[in-house]
Design goal:
One of its GO terms (molecular function) is tyrosine-tRNA ligase activity. It catalyses: tRNA(Tyr) + L-tyrosine + ATP = L-tyrosyl-tRNA(Tyr) + AMP + diphosphate + H(+). Keywords: Aminoacyl-tRNA synthetase, ATP-binding, Cytoplasm, Ligase, Nucleotide-binding, Protein biosynthesis, RNA-binding. The protein is of the alpha/beta class and about 400 residues long. It has 3 domains: about 220 residues, HUPs (Rossmann fold), CATH 3.40.50.620; about 80 residues, Tyrosyl-Transfer RNA Synthetase (Orthogonal Bundle); about 70 residues, Structural Genomics Hypothetical 15.5 Kd Protein In mrcA-pckA Intergenic Region, Chain A. The strands form 3 sheets. The protein has a 6-stranded mixed sheet, sandwiched between helices. Strands 7-13-12-9-10 form a 5-stranded mixed sheet. Helix 10 packs across helix 14, helix 11 runs parallel beside helix 13 and helix 13 packs across helix 14. The longest helix is centred in the middle third of the chain and has 17 residues. The model has no long low-confidence stretch (mean pLDDT about 90).
């Protein structure tokens, strides 16, 4: 194995969960080096939501590293498979998206992914190119290449089957369709989250069945969300979108727990492993973990905005921590003065309900122009003021 192949393997393996099969990947890398023909590396994402978040960038960062090593990166938008709905990790049938929803979401996907990938060196494809052409005859022929028993070996299907939870026939087709993407693209390496391992393996098996050399597989860990429990997901509200304003992104990253900070460093930071290990030693020796978290938040904000935006976000965060009002506050017009504080908070969009608003008053979490509000029966007269809930929610209210 040459030094360059050894180096490539080290880069590829950093932060990964599993490489299947590493010896095969080393052979592919060596062959690519000798022939000058880059590997074809595939990442498929279904446009089930319009925004990408930091959880998506764990695998996108790895794709960028592979681009920098000189290989061909294929960003595959699953516009066909989105209509099935990926059942991975779910205990109920995922509602299929309409063609209109898929097209709307897909419009922004590659633009956002290009904040991580080198767009000029990325091949963008849609799996409807070959899936639509299969037709009924082709779908039946594809289905004949895999057994129901093999499909039901997948953990989530097994659990649902044993529990008597319905499994729709179209869900059984999803792993086959994702695997067929690898055949259509003649993929050498496919990346995905750990929850995609079964689907990625189906791709290997189908390639063998179609007479192709099987792809290698690289699974990446799933990034936990801001709650530190569930995987990052927009539907769970524990996410950091990569297009969020710099101040919002910074504040969210500073909200993660100190232990979770190291997980984010491992999966998101571009700092060297030795530098991260040094940070850990410093914290063990008494350095405030907040200092290290600030460095992480600034690194991420600078990546998606700028270094100047990262510095400004830190200033804004510290101003809020001192009870100050941030520079950028959304303006809201509310009518009906005089109005109860609970109703005002709800209409200003700072609380989901009046009951939640009154709980926040009870907890001392509501301020008007920096002054804490303690009276739940308070009625607010007409005027303009800054309304605050907790540390991060502000609105400049014009009440009439």
């Amino acid at each position: 194995m040459s030094d360059s192949v050894q180096h490539a393997l080290e880069v590829i393996k950093r932060g990964t969960d599993e490489v299947l099969v590493e010896s095969e990947l080393a052979q592919k890398l060596a062959r690519a080096e000798q022939s000058g023909k880059p590997l074809r590396i595939k990442l498929g994402l279904d446009p089930t939501a319009p925004d990408l978040h930091l959880g998506h960038t764990v695998v996108l960062n790895k794709m960028r590293q592979l681009q920098d090593l000189g290989h061909t990166v294929i960003f595959l938008i699953g516009d066909f498979t989105s209509m099935i709905g990926d059942p991975s990790g779910r205990n109920i049938t995922r509602p299929p998206l309409s063609r209109e929803q898929i097209e709307q979401n897909a419009k922004t996907y590659f633009a956002q992914a290009s904040l991580v990938l080198d767009a000029s060196k990325t091949e963008i494809r849609y799996n409807s190119e070959w899936c639509d052409q299969l037709g009924a005859r082709g779908m039946i022929e594809l289905s004949s290449r895999y057994t129901v028993a093999r499909i039901l070996e997948r953990e989530d299907f097994t659990k649902r089957f044993k529990a008597g939870t319905p499994i729709s026939v179209h869900e059984l087709l999803y792993p086959l369709m994702q695997g067929y993407d690898s055949v259509a693209l003649r993929s050498d390496l496919e990346l995905g989250g750990t929850d995609q391992k079964f689907n990625l393996l189906v791709g290997r098996e189908l390639q063998k069945d179609y007479g192709q050399e099987p792809q290698c597989i690289l699974t990446m860990p799933l990034l936990e969300g801001l709650d530190g429990v569930e995987k990052m997901s927009k539907s769970k509200g524990n996410y950091v979108a990569i297009t969020e304003p710099a101040n919002t992104m910074f504040g969210k990253l500073m909200s993660i727990s100190d232990p979770m900070m190291w997980r984010y460093y491992e999966l998101l930071s571009f700092r060297s492993l030795s530098e991260i290990a040094q940070f850990k030693r410093e914290v063990e020796e008494g350095r405030n973990p907040r200092d290290i978290k600030v460095l992480l938040a600034q690194e991420i904000v600078a990546r998606f905005h700028s270094q100047a935006a990262a510095e400004s976000a830190l200033e804004d965060f510290e101003r809020r921590a001192r009870g100050g009002i941030p520079d950028e506050v959304a303006e809201v017009a509310v009518a009906g003065a005089p109005i109860g504080i609970g109703q005002l908070l709800k209409q200003a969009g700072l609380c989901a309900s009046t009951s939640e608003a009154l709980r926040m008053v009870d907890q001392g979490g509501v301020r008007i122009d920096g002054n804490v509000i303690a009276d739940k029966a308070l009625k607010i007269e007409a005027g303009s003021f800054v309304l605050q809930v907790g540390k991060r929610k502000f609105a400049r209210v014009n009440l009439s």
